Amino acid sequence: MPENKPSEKTRKLKEDLFWEQQRCWDKLSARERAEVSSYAERYIDFLDRARTERRAVKLMVEEARLKGFNDIHAKGAKTGRVFLSSREKMLVMAVVGKRPMAEGIRLVASHLDAPRLDLKPNPLYEDTGLAFLKTHYYGGIKKYHWVARPLALCGTLIRRDGRSVDIDLGLEPDDPILTVTDLLPHLARKQMEQKASEFIPAENLNVLVGGTPYADKKADERVKLSILQILNKKYKITEEDFTTAEIQVVPADRPRSAGLDGSLIAGYGQDDRVCAFTSFSALLETAQPEHTCVAVFYDKEEIGSEGNTSAKSRFLEMFLMEMLQYTGAEPSQVNLHRVCFNGKGLSADVAAGLDPTYPDVHEKRNSPKLGCGLNLKKYTGSGGKYGASDANAEYASWVRNLFNDNRVVWQAGGMGKVDEGGGGTVSKFVANLGMEIIDCGPPVLSMHSPLEVTSKDDVWMCRKAFKVFFMS
Hints:
Layout: H1 8-17, H2 24-27, H3 30-49, H4 53-66, E1 70-71, E2 81-86, E3 90-95, E4 106-111, E5 116-127, E6 130-138, E7 151-158, E8 164-169, E9 179-180, H5 189-192, E10 207-210, H6 222-235, E11 246-251, E12 256-258, E13 264-267, H7 270-284, E14 293-298, H8 315-326, H9 333-341, E15 344-348, E16 351-352, E17 374-377, E18 381-382, H10 393-405, E19 410-412, E20 422-423, H11 427-431, E21 436-441, E22 443-444, E23 452-455, H12 456-470
Parallel strand pairs: 1-2, 4-14, 4-15, 15-21, 16-22, 17-19
Antiparallel strand pairs: 2-3, 3-14, 5-6, 5-11, 6-10, 7-8, 7-11, 9-10, 12-13, 13-23, 17-21, 18-20
């Protein structure tokens, strides 16, 4: 019987017309393959140390200074490499290009905040001889993810004397960890019949912090007093100081390589610190670009970009005005509008990776896969593209050609099936300034959980994409 194979003409036609998804590993050169692992280790170390947005900004500023960046307000900051931070939770950096800023900039925008538990203003209490901290969850979480797992406290507290104190409990190998207790299955019959969104009530996310009573048997709330004494000894703080603090409860687990082949990264906060780290490292390596390159790292994206450290603030506009002045141009509204309208941007945020364990919520043809490069999202939003930033065909094509010409492996997709949900990014706020912008970033599994998973190949490809974009 004749072989059932297509003709050579058909094979050639399919080769010319079809677009097949590529795997990063197949397209990496020998030199690039050698770099993937070492770059992943740098990223893992950043994840480990940058558990909060404040910590991330501090680390990035320290490294930026070592690479020749100066505060734009500092005397003698005429190096062409500058930064500006806001309230220790938001950062913007720039490398001056050869062309005037009014001809447009290259902007990559990401965010540093991540879903977590925050302490309430009056968190510490004692019940049945144990001490707990009350919390309020931040961002979109599955509450059951946060019970019966190792947790730590990180944050900033201002004492009554006005001095700032960094809280750091549970991250060092010898530190005792904290946890939120769970109900044993033997007594959980009613609980197991409830919906997943309900069987762990938010008010039950109480962090267990101690059980040793204060020595005086006549004292009230002896365990609470003992905990306050420990905190006072370590940080010289009182209970009132909690009322104005920013203290986060975060996973205590260290991020690390995952998979028997070590090809993956498992760790907390990869949404969106993976894009923050890759765009940050790409900008550090950028020298003498054609256009001025800007990387901005926002806060508060996970709660709708509200507040004065978010993408809705005027921080980026203020910085661009100062950059106009810094480069010798008039810092006028007209020039600012030209900078934005002629600019090109990438909204760097992660994508929902196709998880074969949960195929029902994904639309397979339009869901990104791990190991196949960063994902271009032409639009975000939910349902009928509500709340979306929708890139036009001309700009999407420009980015596609830029990546293709520079051997950047990419894929195209969205956030699952249309009516399953959806999500937004900071892109619409940058688009409101008149700038061309499109979403892109690596796919993630277990997004918004305490242990998110990415591919080392995708992380490396993300950094490569940002490098070629800055130099375009």
